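Example record

The entry below shows one chain as it appears in the dataset: sequence first, then structure tokens.
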Amino acid sequence: MNGQERDRWINRNRYYYRCLLNFLHYTIPENQSVLEIGCGTGYILNQLKPLRGVGIDTNPDFVAHAQANYPNLQFRTLDANQLDQLNERFDYVLLSDTIGLLTDVQQVFDQLQSVCYANTRIIITYRSALWNPVLSLAQRLRLKMPEQRQNWLDTGDIVNLLDVASLDVIRTGHKVLLPRYVPILSWLLNKYVVNLPLFNRLGLFTFIVARSQHTQKMAAEHTVSVIVPARNEEGNIEDIVRRTPQMGAHTELIFVEGNSTDDTWAEIQRITKKYSSERDIKCVQQSGKGKGDAVRKGFGMATCDILMILDADMTVPPEDLPKFFQAIASGKGEYINGTRLVYPMEKEAMRTLNLIGNKFFSIAFSWLLNQRIKDTLCGTKVLTRENYQQLSANRAYFGDFDPFGDFDLIFGAAKLNLKFVEVPIRYRARTYGETNISRFKHGWLLLKMTAFALNKIKFI
């Protein structure tokens, strides 16, 4: 098959490729550096609109055809197990319908490290073995592009080989139940039904999103900004300063006071002055409303490379923050979320309805994000300033919808394909003040935000 024939087959199966590209457009933003391994005639790479795009393939006719059609991209005749010859690194590496044709998958995975930054995302898509009889029949009927016999690899096999190559799997899933266009039915099956439990395993193609595990800098080299949103928390301010440990090379505390009716702001100013010789403390009053606005204000002031949120009610003890620091500084995770639902809680720490709500959202969000997340509403969350800046730049995808800030960060981290890690903490009862959360009003808002996220994250 030459390049022109392959393009004709792609055009005949354009609905399938439209479904595939819909997923890839969500996963790989435009204007990134992208390497496609097994690029064929370059159609997919070009559709991704990379800032810098390189495609490799072992078929010289495909490569010549791709370079002629897409002169703004680079195409090379190169085997996938010779990636170290590229001497380049990329934001994203794509292997689409390529795994089944590789002669040595493990060797290729080992080579991937040579083209990855520390934050590179590796996107793998491949056809499900369940579809082999259907695809074989379609090929005999000339409804599908002719292909050679492929490797028999399931998700477990590929995940295992990625692990052997020190590549960390972030999430997996399946897409496309009906690869031919049938009005209404194709839309219903491929947008909604394929994402439901049980039906999901019947998808035509499986995807895996993984990341490189390049050596991170030493934990002692990191600096930490602890953002403390504080509204009516006058009695906790000094304890927060005294009890928050120093982490890494430097730790700064940023208090964001939020329209308190007590003397919280005056207390923050007093404590900032009192401990100015011992601690790096900044303080500000927010002009907007809500914890989400306070967190964004604090993150905007932060100067360190790791950002942490500590609720001023101290239901999560400041002494637990080093656990979060170690999880992110070691590279084990990129979005670190506390979970209050592991250890027994102090009496009155969380009311029954709140507990039920948290467990419901745990199940819903683990399914929604394709990553395990047990406690979506724990206030302590940690990510790097670099990743937060990317999240903030892409905030328009979801919009300004979350007064709490929890879901703004969770959805944004999921969109960036950050690796989620949860750290269990012992949730304490309040020793000062009253909760600022309304169970029913805010619970209903969270339900609406979950429904909103379905069409932005799951039903794509």
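Notes for this example: The two ends are 33 Å apart (CA to CA). The chain has a mean pLDDT of 87.
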